[in-house]
TrEMBL record:
Phylogenetic classification of the source organism: Bacteria, Pseudomonadati, Pseudomonadota, Alphaproteobacteria, Hyphomicrobiales
Protein name: 3-keto-5-aminohexanoate cleavage enzyme
Single GO MF descriptor: 3-keto-5-aminohexanoate cleavage activity
Amino acid sequence: MIVQTCINGARSADFHPQLPLDPKAMARDGAACVAAGAAELHVHARGPDGRESLALAAMDPTMLALRRACPGTLIGVSIGAWIENDEERTLAAIAGWGELPDYASVNLSEQAAPEVMGCLRQRGVGIEAGLASVADAERLVRLDHGNRVLRILIEISEQELAAAWAVSDGIEAVLDRAGMHRAILLHGENATVWPFVHRAARRNLSTRVGLEDGKALPDGRVASGNAALTAAAVAIFRAGR
């Protein structure tokens, strides 16, 4: 049961003044989040132009900076199809990485997910299987990858809370029926971030917060940055023990 911090995502610079978009900023911010209680970091590497990238020129400086700033901390990256916008470029980028992340998040809604997962396994990179719908969970079951992934990431985009609960419950039901008992990290987005943090704490599941998912604190105020969001989530987990 951990708190992971997702420090930037696909957000643009105007989302928050403290959004870290280059290796030095990510390293500085990551260290502050670890100090605030984050057990892991999830990042979207950016190229020199500030755009998301899986290329060696973006990934290596990012990973090296984070490794220096946060020794011993597990670091994951996104493999979202939109980043390279081409399956072959995505696979070639993964094959060419130098400084490897500990794990990568793969969205099961994306067509090339099986190939991407296979490529990551060849490189020895753990897989966080991203499930945003019941269909995603059913696909993971069909692919028979569920007992080999590092963990299952249940990520809910629905903003109406009853609908968000229903999707999350439906995903878990599929996994339970299939006997896929892997570690689960549960998180919402924007309006549902904190309800899902509380749900994860009550159920002894892991969760994540950070500017990728939203910038509001539990009381609705805009957070000063990722470290403040992390500290708020850690406080909820500690209070629930």
